[in-house]
Amino acid sequence: MASGTATVKAVISGDTVVLMGASKTGPPPEIMLTLASLQAPKLARSSEQHDEPYAFTSREFLRNLLIGKQVRFKVEYKVAAINRDFASIYLDDENVCVLVAKEGMAKVKTLEQSRDGCSPDLEEMLRVQEIAVAEKKGIYSEDGTKAALHVSWSGLTGEELLGRFKGQQIPAIVEMVRDGAAMRVILLSTMQIVNFALSGVQCPRVNPPPGTEPQGPAPFSREAKLFTEVRLLHRKIKVKLEGTDKFGNLYGSVIHPSGHNISIELLKNGLGKMSDWSSEFLSVNTRTEMRNAEKSAKLLKTRVWHDYVPPVLQATDTSLQGLVVEVVSGDCIVVALKSKNYEEQRIYLSSIRAPRMGNARRNEPNAPYALDSKEAMRSKVIGKTVSIEIEYERNNPNLADNSVMTFASVFLESAVAKKKGGEPKPRVNIAESIVADGLAEVVRHKQGEEKSGHYDLLVAAEAQAKASKKGLHSTKPSPEPRITDLCFEANKAKQYLPFLQREKTLRAVVEHVYAGNRFKVYVPKENCTVNFIVAGIKCPQPAKPSKDAEPYGEDARRFARRSTMQRNVLIEVDDMDRMGNAFGPMYIGTKDFKNNFGCALLHEGYARVDDFSIERTSASSDLLQAEEVAKKARVHVWKNFAENEEETTTKVAVKRTSDEVLPVVRLSEITNATTFYIQNVSDRSVATIEEKMRDFTQQVGLDGKAFEIKKGVLCAALFDDGQGPVWNRARVEAKPTSGVQVKFIDYGNTEILPPTRLRPLDPSLVHHPAQAKECVLGFIKPFDTNAEFAGDAAHMLNDLAWGKNMTALVHGHDSNGRLSVSLLVNNKNVTESILEQGVARVDRKAIRYAEPYQKAIVDKLVTAQESARRRRLCMWQYGDVESDED
């Protein structure tokens, strides 16, 4: 007779089980066995039958005891008339037949009733049965409730059950599995048996509906059914009712004690496909998990996906990062890709469609809400770093060549930002955000078409936008602004000049970049577009249809495009030329932290100071200083510049009537008695840079990263000021054998560091100007390195000024381009205090060329020096130390 070990797959009744063996290939063998010498109450198998008393209680005992467990079995006899095998089953070496008899859950057949055979433990079974009868256990109980407990085949309709239990976790037992995603379950709260299917999953049918082709079980249907049976059949689970179909069949989710989601497991193993219509019953997060599971099975060509052909992409790298440099429409952006040396690529957002932008040349108007959609996209992504997941490509229907449109999901990164508890914020899906604003629609793809990997999030966002009647889904017409274009009408532009000059600073948006310093800007306040030129500088010109590009012309235009295109900027209109082009300074950033873009171009070596127009701009000193930095670094247009080379043009001196005042400054480094660095803390520029560098440190950690170290390169250098190491901006000055000499551009100090304390600087931190400005004390004679009182003067400067907020009067620049200043602490000139102690002396040549408006300051300095001389302090202790040559 048959014997062996097997797993209990199903418990049919209180005395019958289905055992499943092991199999390396193909479906595992199964055998149905009835416990030898036992007879349990019969359960109803259809709505026409009725449960015998205690039938459900008896089956529940055996189910709880055996389901899913490994047992030994031995077939004791067979009844040919009913083709049934009767066996002894052992759980942990204990005969289950004896256990069932002992608990009174089935009747023991006597020897006279066992014509075909009996259990070898019949005597023991009869003995324990007598005890169970005496103790009124199991079916011998007088508890009418247990006797009456039975399963109902009818009762509440699917809609009624859904209305009563929707969203609740209801205890249930899976009674039968029709296919991988459809089953019959007993709802224990109502003891009703109902048809139940998994939301969002469709598995191959074992018995397809009549009339379908081909006939017979669908491929992989048996595998799907077995997969679910092994995990759920006759298991006690919880179901969550979520919806019904038109026939009243219930759909929902299974909550398994193991925590695994059977729907996701079926999809992951290629035993089912997503059902879009029933997936709408599920939460967005669950749908997303299921989509990801289906996607992994598709890529691996698992089972039902064995003949799946993935889309062939021209893109070799499907995960990219880059800087958004242009917004074409509400569903299309241009990104400068980091991995491709910032090559620009047009990216379309997967599975959404924004209103179409018009074409002025073809006299095509914008579709309703097209401008709103584009503007919303611009405000969200322009100038920001995004992550791109390329998902599919399409041939461009508007072009005859083989060019393709790249469709991707695009995300705004927020790795630095943290939630409470330290968890990173989730990435922002740009397509979902635009759809949620009601400014784009979700594409309804054809069967088998590739779609966004986040399609369900898009559908949910669209449903919310429709419910809220946002944007496209509203009943209000789209407002179409009427913008006055002044770019090609010089006379009209000049008529607007007084309006553009009413306020010193105007907010604007750069709409186009012609060259490094030439732009088309939109001015919202005046509702007009105008050509704008950054004053005080000249840039090499990019290529034109009839003319090749000048050296670095394309680079300058590319730099300007990536820094300003479609960005919010601040402009000051100084005047307008005869062609109607406005000119003046342009600032990028915010009012609290704005950078002169002319300085940025000069700093990077993409421009030169224009001697003719610099005298007409208020930022001349900043422009000259930025140019000097580029000259020293010999970058781009200054690549072949020699310091002893005489320039062909003479800088135009800017006439002043008073010294420039920096209201609040602080010392950041003292080089010697008369040379130091200051930070202008009048606005938030310094604080903002420090915050950005702290965020940068938090993001990248404290480990260095290799890069090409060469003179003039801007990088991040690790520095510890006693409050913990932080990355700071620094410029490479030299590479001595002991390390790398760098200068911290926001503080002024110079250090020699090992390469392990250096790393590349994030591009977003490169273009901010240096916050430390090198200065000398005005009208003071510089010290020689080993001068007798140089140390005393330096200590005195430190005592008087370090750590204090001061006012700086900028008198001009010295021969090395450094700011010549006076520092005022509580309206007292620090230079006066140093001179009064006799540790420094005035520069008679500098006094000789002082401007008339500086006379009051100079007179006080001379008086302070005379006081020290009369008292013969320090350097004056032996009398006059000055010579006629001084």
From TrEMBL:
UniProt keyword DNA damage, yes or no: no
The UniProt record lists the keyword Cytoplasm: yes
Keywords per UniProt: Cytoplasm, Phosphoprotein, Repeat
Gene3D superfamilies linked to this entry: 2.30.30.140, 2.40.50.90
Tudor domain residues: 708-768
Signal peptide per UniProt: none
GO cellular-component term (any): cytosol
Main location: cytoplasm
Pfam families linked to this entry: SNase, TUDOR
Location within or outside the cell: Cytoplasm
GO molecular function: nuclease activity; RNA binding
Boundaries of every TNase-like domain copy: 2-142, 168-307, 318-475, 504-640
GO terms for biological process, alphabetical: mRNA catabolic process; regulatory ncRNA-mediated gene silencing
PANTHER family linked: EBNA2 BINDING PROTEIN P100 (PTHR12302), STAPHYLOCOCCAL NUCLEASE DOMAIN-CONTAINING PROTEIN 1 (PTHR12302:SF2)
Protein name as catalogued: Nuclease
